[in-house]
Specification:
Rossmann fold; single chain; 2 domains; 307 residues; 37% helix
């Protein structure tokens, strides 16, 4: 699968403090963002997410390594024209209307005349703001402003969207609206690269993910692959428990969770699962259900960050 974005051994450092000491914030990061994917960059505050986004969008140049956008170096005119960017804290002129703001931004992006008229109508419809196009931005809600930010990012019809913390500060309704908008844009064939420190947002919106911690890449791959590589415990619901069996299970696996006419146990490993099932069946107990309990991205992230 072709890569829309390639991060190749990227390092980034800055001089800071009174003595202008050089501090490295990205340490040799390498991964690719496949075309047509919704790719999440996950990491705590200070992990280097925004720095990496600035490299992808060409706002900064890496201290080492390369960043490629559609096969060309990030920052060149050809690469910038293929990207739509929504920063974490976009600035909006509150006296402008949604329509006039998009026309202003479209002109800056090189869209003019009838094409600008057509694109403004289209993107307002995509983000469900057509009815608010004549309303001043000072009267927009946080969620409406975020959707308008999406509208300006896609106004010049880029192949790739780069979104820095697109759900930051939104209420549950706003977060859902943004997730649905990301899904619609991805369904239209765009590659979407978004960063977040909220694991649930990444898990809900993305099909691939890279995890950063301390400026280092700790995991990267499809969400399904990451979850498969980190098997969780198995939940086993049993009935027909005799006193002898209950005592044995309590000694080996703890008391278990009481459920109607039985108990539910969590077996941490496959070998624990096999041993518990053998004990139950050998004691004429009843196995009512066996259900793997998969880990979440949050489980995996904290496990890696703790190493």
């Amino acid at each position: 699968m072709a890569s829309a974005i390639e991060i190749l051994g990227v390092r980034q450092s800055f001089r800071t403090g009174f003595w202008m000491k050089r501090v490295e914030v990205l340490h040799g990061i390498t991964f690719g963002v496949p075309e047509g994917s919704v790719f999440g960059l996950l990491g705590p505050n200070g992990a280097g997410k925004t720095t990496l986004i600035h490299l992808i969008t060409g706002i900064r140049k890496p201290s080492g390594g390369r960043v490629l956008v559609a096969g060309v170096d990030a920052g060149v005119i050809e690469a910038r024209g293929r990207i739509g960017f929504l920063p974490e804290r976009p600035y909006f002129h509150e006296h402008l209307t949604g329509d006039s703001f998009l026309r202003y931004m479209g002109t800056l992006a090189g869209v003019h005349g009838r094409e600008l008229d057509r694109r403004v109508d289209e993107v307002l419809d995509v983000v469900s703001l057509s009815e608010a196009r004549r309303v001043e931005l000072g009267r927009y809600s946080k969620g409406m402003l975020q959707r308008l930010g999406f509208a300006q990012a896609i106004l010049h019809d880029p192949e790739i969207l780069v979104l820095d913390e697109p759900m930051s500060g939104l209420d549950p309704v706003g977060r859902r609206e943004v997730r649905e908008l990301i899904g619609r844009l991805a369904g239209g064939g765009k590659t979407i690269f978004l960063s977040s420190h909220i694991v649930a947002d990444i898990e809900a919106a993305c099909d691939r993910v890279a995890m950063l911690a301390g400026g280092r890449l700790v995991r990267a791959g499809s969400v399904a692959e990451l979850l498969e590589r980190s098997p969780g415990p198995t939940e086993i619901d049993i009935g027909g428990i005799t006193e002898a069996l209950a005592a044995r299970l309590a000694r080996d696996f703890g008391p278990g969770q009481p459920v109607p006419a039985g108990r539910r146990y969590l077996a941490p490993t496959p070998s624990d699962t096999a041993r518990l099932l053998r004990l139950v069946l050998d004691s004429d107990g009843v196995v009512r259900s066996v259900r793997p309990v998969g880990p979440t991205l949050e489980d995996i992230f904290f496990e890696e960050a703790a190493k």
